[in-house]
Write the structure tokens for this entry.
Amino acid sequence: MTETSPEVVHATTVNGITTITLDSPSNRNALGEALVGQLLSALRAAGAAPDVRAVVLTHAGSTFCAGADLGEALRRGASVEEASAAGTEAMLQVMRTILELPKPVVARIDGHVRAGGFGLIGAADIVVAGPSSTFALTEARLGLAPAMISVVLLPKMTARSSGRYYLTGETFDPATAEQIGLLTRACATADDLDTEVAAILAGIGKASPQGLAASKRLTTASILRDFDRDARLCAEESAALFGSDEAREGMAAFLGKRPPAWDLSGRSETA
């Protein structure tokens, strides 16, 4: 008897809008095998449905998405390198599916975004975030780099902002995320978030399916043009980093809740 995966993604369609909710708050909506499979199925079903005009991608819990669920693969006996490769492939599939979907994808966020969560919002067409949202690209602190998600992030963020937040790993708020091009709109309250999403969907509802599909192709063409080439190079870089001694130390420190060996922040100055 085959064990059925728990339902960690919910999809409902009302008045031509499919709302897809990531619902695995116990692991911060990490991109595990079940969540990725169900998310891809929901996206593809919405893309193929003639009565669906747009997709809203949202979440349950306080985190929108914390990135790849490496722990899941490790518990199955995979090596760190194998777990990293599986996470990379999952991230590629999700980003490409969102980019190629012939319907607008609107990300509605009111929670934390980390790691691969940036890949989801970078691939989305419109991103609106509420006051509970926070953002941080902390890969460099683990001996890694935000390699895969750069395929969709670098075309959206300003050069100065990627130079800062890729390197420092510091946390920033929705207002900053809007200023640097990561968000379409930062909302001060949850009510404002609902109002903004409703206004966006009302505008989409006035457009024809053909017009939406053709217009979206214009906005994603430059990313998709080089997607496979850039993704392959980033995947190779990611694999090399994950197999390094520094990455092993970074992940061990993270899991052990201690500073990694290279962390200078707690060192006292010497004369």
